[in-house]
Amino acid sequence: MLLALLLLALDVKVSQRAAELYGPTALALRPDGTQAWLAVDDEIWSFDAGGHRGMRARLPEIGLPGHAYSLDWHPGAGLLAMRLDNDATIHLLDPATLLPSGTITLQWPPELVEHASRAVHLAFAEDGRIAASTGGGHAVALFGRDGRFLARTALGTYRFTNGLWWSGDALWTTDTNGLQLKRLDGRTLALQQSVDVPAPRGTRYLGLARPHPPQATEANEPLPLATVIRFGNDRIVGVVADILPGGGELLFSQTDRMEPRDLGWLGRDLLVVDGRSRSVLRWNAAHEPLPPFGDTDSQRDLQDAAQMQQRLQWLHQALVAAAIGGVVAAITLVWHARRGSRSRRRIAATPHWWAVLASALLPGLGQWMRGRNAMALAWFLVWSVYTLSISVPVLWNLLGPRSDVSVQYAADVLAVQLLITAFAALEAARR
Question: Average pLDDT by consecutive 10-residue portion of the chain (431 residues)?
């Protein structure tokens, strides 16, 4: 039992380290196509137009511990705008040195405050206005360059919203589950136009979106309204497509499954941050794939981190398996040690192994059946609190876009639940 607990403690450390190696997440591009910046784990990398890496900055070393959730170019200030995970503050960075250059605190209206640090994506206008989508807040909000609240969309406009971009003085947005692109007045956020988009069964939901370069791909083809990410039900695996003014789409070709996290146009090349391959994929305006973005060193660093995370995940699985094996072995030893003996404190109405089986099905039930009410309450609280805590993100994922829940996450949850029930069953076997 002690060994199993030590293995679980070690597994917590391993899992934390594996979670830190999340890979590339966010992308920012200078509108003139001369520079790009990529958020990778707890670092920011800068690139020139040719993909050669320049500056690297570790966020803890510049006083910003955490991981970048979003990274955008602020044209009004000529700075990078970054948000960290679960942090509502907008941190401004000097694009040359990658050092902090100020902050902006958005003054959210009371009904949207809870979404200020969650599922928010930003778009910056030339004059400094800041538009923010709220994901599960089902609204878009508008702020001045100093963060002062200006306007929000009317109730019922969206069923989740993520991507948004400025087009002159108009603001385009995505209605994630409503399957529409919506153009809003850039001052009042009044709805001006809605464009229905296709709803393929495998990739229904709209994610981030960026404006398409102004030049048409072919003289006879209409200029796309935007380039968008489309997700499947898990909001992780998806595709990238150009959305046409009439609502049609042109998919960017891909041979492997992709987990698009961010995207943008660097000149005439589309860059897509892919969580599956741990790289920045690249296409031309004709939707043809090109070699991944970045130089040899940056691509090698990305792949080395991916391999390290894979090894840590294997170690995590081995530790969980060993812990489960340890618990099973302990239960077996206890059973053999006590086999045939009589319990002087047995409750007559409850056969001993009925209680063990009951706790294996529902932690605490067997203890209650044997009259150990305090222990029964303790085991039930441990199991129920853990189940409730992991059910919240799972339900959130089912109800709307969120990328925190994966197959690996579900497997980890199931493994921990099995361990809790095994420990409870072992305790119930105590006479």
Answer: 65 72 90 93 93 93 89 94 90 94 93 83 93 91 94 92 91 90 94 86 82 68 86 83 86 81 93 92 91 93 88 79 70 56 46 64 67 66 62 48 50 66 61 55
Sign of CA dihedral 20, 24, 29, 33: positive
Q: Are 121 and 208 in contact (CB under 8 A)?
A: yes
Under 8 Å between Cβ of 430 and 378: no
Measured from the Cβ of residue 262, the count of other Cβ atoms closer than 10 Å reads: 26
DSSP 8-class letter at 258: B
State the CB neighbour count (10 A cutoff) for residue 380.
18
Quick check: 163 and 208 in contact, CB under 8 A? yes
Cβ distance 302 to 23 under 8 Å? Answer: yes
Backbone angles phi, psi at 142, to 5 degrees: -125, 135
Residues near 315 by beta carbon (within 8 Å), at least 6 away in sequence:
14
Tokens (6 digits) for 236: 């992780």
106, 115 in Cβ contact below 8 A? no
**Can you tell me the distance from the alpha carbon of 226 to that of 175, in angstroms, rounded to the nearest whole number?**
14
Q: In the sheet that 191-196 helps form, which strands lie side by side, from edge to edge? A: 161-167, 170-175, 180-185, 191-196
3-class DSSP state of 180: strand
CA gap 131, 152 in Å, rounded: 9
The label of the residue with tokens 């955490």 reads 66
How many angstroms separate the CA atoms of 388 and 333, rounded?
A: 32
- Residue 380 DSSP label: H
Q: 385: left (phi > 0), else alpha (psi -120 to 50), else beta?
A: alpha
Q: Compute the distance between CA of residue 285 and CA of residue 33 in angstroms, rounded to an integer.
A: 14
> Which stretches of 269-346 are DSSP H helices?
296-338
Q: In sequence order, what E strands does 113-160 have?
A: 121-124, 130-133, 140-143, 149-152
